[in-house]
Amino acid sequence: MRWSNENIRCVFNSLERSLPLYVETIGYSAWERIFNRPDGYPYYHWLHTLEGEGIFEFSGSRVSLTAGKGVLITPFTPHFYYPVSDRWSTAYITFGGVAVAAILDSIGMNQSAIYTESDQFSFTNVIGEMIHKVDRDAEFSGLESSTELYHFLMLLKKFGMPNDQPSLSQYYDKLRPVVQWMEENCSANVGLPEIVGQANMSVSYLNELFRDAFGMSPYSFLIQLRIREAKKIMVTNPGMALKEVSLLAGYNDVSHFVATFRKKEGITPAKYRELHLAAQASDAL
């Protein structure tokens, strides 16, 4: 999208605000101004720099927003921002929704933070395309904008670098070799020492990477892989005894397997298999 010297501001109909996630406004400021909001803004607010530089102050922090940097502010967070270059151009989006807090909580983004673009993700390209669609298409609905907003948030979660930390994608890249090894060996007699040895890094650093990337420890991730393997075995071998299933899934003790499965899935392996077979029979009718 080509940016001009004219501001663009699109405001969505209040009828759309019953959606789980909706856009309130989206736009482009060719010459960003001074904004002081001691009581914050009533919606989530995303702002990023296209050209020039501005200063953004919030929660006791004072950060420089140059090209490729953006900020996500939660509702009613006091903030103050202003240009420090001759021209400071920005793009922005404000949004809310009945499920917005739950969505952002689930992906660990329900807090104000500064984000930096990575090589894999351009704020400008994604938001610019949204603005172009809204500005040029009178039929562009709130439902479509909600879909576009969700897509942006997922990309921001995966590729954006929050507060100068690596992006989620970069964490994945670091963990990809050890995760692949764990997937190939989850049924073997391996535990945390073997995982650490394969990763060739300290236990604390490996734990930190796994928690940042997956929200769990390496050992919990291994348990998830074993549960997944057990499900696959039970589905493909409905007559197999649970003791044999547990051994093939990496458990030496069937009682431990049953207890772990029930803790993670809320039902026993036998009940899981029963429900799966019942679903198969129903589909066949």
UniProtKB/TrEMBL annotation:
<dbReference type="InterPro" id="IPR018062">
    <property type="entry name" value="HTH_AraC-typ_CS"/>
</dbReference>
<keyword id="KW-0805">Transcription regulation</keyword>
<feature type="domain" description="HTH araC/xylS-type">
    <location>
        <begin position="176"/>
        <end position="275"/>
    </location>
</feature>
<dbReference type="InterPro" id="IPR003313">
    <property type="entry name" value="AraC-bd"/>
</dbReference>
<keyword id="KW-0238">DNA-binding</keyword>
<dbReference type="InterPro" id="IPR037923">
    <property type="entry name" value="HTH-like"/>
</dbReference>
<dbReference type="GO" id="GO:0043565">
    <property type="term" value="F:sequence-specific DNA binding"/>
</dbReference>
<protein>
    <submittedName>
        <fullName>AraC family transcriptional regulator</fullName>
    </submittedName>
</protein>
<keyword id="KW-0804">Transcription</keyword>
<dbReference type="Pfam" id="PF02311">
    <property type="entry name" value="AraC_binding"/>
</dbReference>
<dbReference type="InterPro" id="IPR018060">
    <property type="entry name" value="HTH_AraC"/>
</dbReference>
<keyword id="KW-0010">Activator</keyword>
<dbReference type="InterPro" id="IPR020449">
    <property type="entry name" value="Tscrpt_reg_AraC-type_HTH"/>
</dbReference>
<dbReference type="Pfam" id="PF12833">
    <property type="entry name" value="HTH_18"/>
</dbReference>
<dbReference type="GO" id="GO:0003700">
    <property type="term" value="F:DNA-binding transcription factor activity"/>
</dbReference>
<dbReference type="InterPro" id="IPR050204">
    <property type="entry name" value="AraC_XylS_family_regulators"/>
</dbReference>
<dbReference type="InterPro" id="IPR009057">
    <property type="entry name" value="Homeodomain-like_sf"/>
</dbReference>
